[in-house]
Design a protein that fits this description.
This protein is of the alpha/beta class. The chain folds into 2 domains: 37-108, 60s Ribosomal Protein L30, Chain: A (2-Layer Sandwich), CATH 3.30.1330; 113-280, Alpha/beta knot (3-Layer(aba) Sandwich). Helix content is 31%, strand content 19%. The chain is built from 9 helices and 11 strands. The strands form 2 sheets. It has a 7-stranded parallel β-sheet, with helices on both faces. The chain has a 4-stranded mixed β-sheet with strand order 1-4-2-3. Helix 2 (69-78) links the parallel strand 2 (55-61) and strand 3 (82-86). Helix 1 (41-50) packs parallel to helix 2, helix 5 (138-151) runs parallel beside helix 6 (168-174) and helix 5 runs parallel beside helix 9. It is elongated. The termini are close together.
């Protein structure tokens, strides 16, 4: 039996009067590349497999014994890439302080953000998008990108200001997902939300005070999930602009989940519903 519900936007949340002027394009354009190295065995291996950005050379620590280094060396040779071996202590200068490079670094042409249109134009009939309202921790961003890729999300939007970017720390935490997930910056998240509504995409925000559980929403319809930043959650106007707010029920003494964990819970509920729906149809 189908789980679809006859929701109408009038039954959930109306658009507030306060909004950007009609016709004003406040989306961020394609932005400059970020720093140019990837480190860690899995991120480097995924960068080689994806071939999403030009790798200039591979650096491996002398005496490194990680068993998957063989796969990296084979991939480097097949692509005609230069491989240098250096002292382990010299490698620390190429990564952030305290980073675990696992004895391997790829020097690359820097990753670039997608433009909003590169995400919006090729969308499927039932897209699943993720909007991040000022997520500032690069570790959380990387973990969210990993989850988004595994859940099959069509793209991720981050705010242009007060947001973590596609840094090496985010790339490391993403475990290679940064090579596959399209990430764009939104100059004005509320304007982007209005544009998604015009494309008949339902915008679903998260709030601990919401009356609807995340499992009650029909995720088989075109949806954009909006997650708030660490601690503060969604900005007021962003929450008001959402079609509906949902919550993840808490059963312990702590009131909320880490934003990257919340992303996983909701995105995989959306994927579960879509899988069930495809089997029933």
């Amino acid at each position: 039996m189908s789980r679809k519900k006859n929701f109408d936007r009038r039954d959930v949340r109306r658009k507030p009067e306060e909004r950007p002027r009609r016709g004003e394009d406040t989306r961020a354009k394609g932005t400059a590349p970020v720093r140019s190295s990837v480190y860690g065995v899995l991120p480097v291996l995924e960068a080689l497999r994806a071939n999403a950005r030009k790798i200039e050379r591979i650096i491996i620590a002398e005496g490194a014994r990680e068993h998957r280094l063989g796969e990296i060396l084979d991939a480097a040779r097949s692509n005609g890439l230069r491989v240098d071996r250096v002292k382990k202590e010299d490698m620390t200068r190429l990564v952030p302080d305290g980073a675990n490079h696992q004895g391997v670094i790829a020097l690359t042409a820097s990753a670039s953000y997608a433009t909003p249109d590169e995400i919006l134009e090729p969308m499927t009939e039932t897209p699943l998008l993720l909007l991040l309202d000022s997520v500032q921790d690069p570790g959380n961003l990387g973990a969210i990108l990993r989850t988004a890729e595994c859940a099959g999300a069509d793209g991720v939007f981050i705010t242009e200001r007060r947001s973590a970017g596609l840094t090496e720390a985010a790339a490391k935490t993403s475990a290679g997902a940064i090579e596959y997930v399209k990430v764009a910056k939104a100059g004005n998240l509320n304007r982007l939300i209005e544009e998604l509504k015009e494309k008949n995409i339902w915008v679903v925000g998260t709030s601990a005070d919401a009356k609807m559980d995340h499992t009650e929403w029909d995720w088989t319809r075109p949806s954009a999930l909006v997650l708030g930043g660490e601690g503060s959650g969604l900005h007021r106007l962003v929450a008001e602009n959402c079609d509906v707010l949902v919550r993840i029920p808490m059963h312990g003494k702590i009131e909320s989940l880490n934003v990257s964990v919340a992303a996983g819970v909701i995105l995989f509920e959306a994927r579960r519903q879509r899988t069930v729906n495809s089997l029933e149809s």
